[in-house]
Amino acid sequence: MTTVFFAAPVLSESASRMVEAVGSLPGVRLGVISQDALEHAPAWARTRIAAHWRVRDVLDPEQLLWAAAGLTERLGAPTRLFGAYEQLQVPLAETRARLGIEGMSVEVTHNFRDKARMKQLLRDAGVPCARHRLLSSEADALAFAEEVGYPLVLKPVAGAGAVATYRADDARGLAEALVSVQPGPAHPVLAEEFMIGDEHSLETVSIDGRPVWHSLTHYYPNPLEVVRNPWIQWCVLLPREVDEVHYDDIRSIGARALTALGMTTGLTHMEWFRRKDGSVAVSEVAARPPGAQITTLMSRSTDTDFVQSWARLMVTGEFDPPARQYAAGVAFLRGQGRGRIRAIHGLDAVRSAIGGLVVDAKLPTLGAEPAESYEGDGWILVRHPQTIVVANALRRLISTVRVELG
Fold first, then answer.
1. For residue 134, what are the β-bridge partners?
2. CA dist., res. 106 & res. 284, Å (int)
3. What domains can be seen in the chain, in order of their start residue?
4. Which of 1, 17, 235, 272 has the smallest number of CB atoms closer than 10 Å to its CB?
5. pLDDT of 333-371, one tens digit each?
6. What ranges in 149-242 are assigned the alpha helix state H?
7. What pLDDT digit, counting tens, does each position of 105-127 carry?
8. Which residue from 284, 235, 237, 273 is spatially nearest to 397, judged by alpha carbons?
9. Which of 127, 128, 132 is nearest to 115 (CA)?
């Protein structure tokens, strides 16, 4: 038997699905570290857990060490310790280093988590990306704005998912953003030139530093616009044609970026732009599975369980590249107005028009408070062998379905 420890802040549906995938691997004995009580996990996930250790703060390496020691007494020494939550990557690496467990090093995890350090490594490697500067004061921000002009983006050095990210279109907008982010010597903030163009993602499976499979998506509109406007219903499209010549540039640049950051074995999520002149630029890279239902899109486009494939990759270092059979896309439903979710309009119309394309859905819950996440109050996922059919279905979804608040 192989002992594996998996860490997650809470045993959410997504985390529980990963727990189930790891625990169902042949010959794996699974220990789980979480801030949640074991009872919070669904029954189908609990059956895969050989032992659970609850901590107060899963991001504290000392508590991770304590949990790992307790689980080791019950299950034996682990050969793997990992998790999917982005903010966990450095604490997990530090714990692996102290316990002598194989996996991504502390230095490499810092390359992915420290966005200023990441940008510098990418630029040094000749990877096109936005100009940036680490701000420790208002004066730093004003000097950077003078150098690169507006718009600018201000974000945490170790941010994730466009959280606490601000766009400044002019001097007034910059002043307002600085009030929110409060840069200082002990709390630096990353400033970047705002990338103008279409935003995408590139997902890459790597084994021993070598890319072995990829996927990509288109965002409509860009995530920062979605965060700034909580009423926007938005889409992510995974085209079937991700191997076409049109994407040769980002595949090549993406591979160079992963080499510069020191990627070893795992799944990465890269956000990138195609500018108006056709050139590409990398925004940032995360060494973990993607959010925004992109992992589900990869599953549906290949008729595989990609969470299971990722679990196997992380535990055994093995991956069988799946063939793409479909395009897939997801539309995120977000409330209009104020108050709780009062009604969902347009579902009958879309069922009639595109019901045969729908393969997954999570509909908004009547009476619930609107979600704070950029993924919104619900989502509908569609697929078809032709990308244009999926794109048209997504347009129909976001223009027809309306979540009313009141």
1. 190
2. 18
3. 2-103 (3.40.50.20), 131-193 (3.30.1490.20), 199-405 (3.30.470.20)
4. 1
5. 998 888 999 999 999 999 999 999 999 999 999 999 988
6. 171-181, 223-228
7. 999 999 999 888 998 999 999 99
8. 235
9. 132
